[in-house]
Amino acid sequence: MTLAAAGLFLLGIAQLLRVPRTSLGRRVLRRMAPKDISKPRLGWFYRYVDNHPWAALQTARLVPRHTSYLREVKRELERASLPDVPVRVIVPRSRTRWRATYAKMDASNRALVKRFPRGELVFADGTSHSWLPVERPDVVVAAIRDVLSVA
């Protein structure tokens, strides 16, 4: 079991035991969230974690398979000729982000964008990988509008 799968499995068990509803659970969740998260978004995070125990457990089962699928997709993308279409890759950028952990992911995102003649990297300040659409929906909407306007 990968580290990510183990973490999701533990999260699912904690959810089934209703740990997120306790004061200790809330403190742990608060530490997991980005430091600059707003109160409404933190409330959404609490509700999400508290209401989806089976999702975490089922995702934990899929994570080990996911890695091999990602490798397969990467190989195919590297072989394929990609079309001349506008592409925006949105990358999280947070002050709390672990630089060493995400350096490889950033390099992969940059390499992907370079393969598209009209590709651009878009940084979403104050976000994490998992919660980017929730934390910065404005960045997602702006990227979609940008692609539609130049298509």
UniProtKB/TrEMBL annotation:
Task: Please identify the protein, giving its name as recorded.
Answer: Alpha/beta hydrolase
Q: What is the protein's species of origin?
A: Mycobacterium gordonae
* SUPFAM superfamilies assigned: alpha/beta-Hydrolases
InterPro entries in the record: AB_hydrolase_fold
The record's Gene3D superfamilies line, in alphabetical order, gives:
alpha/beta hydrolase
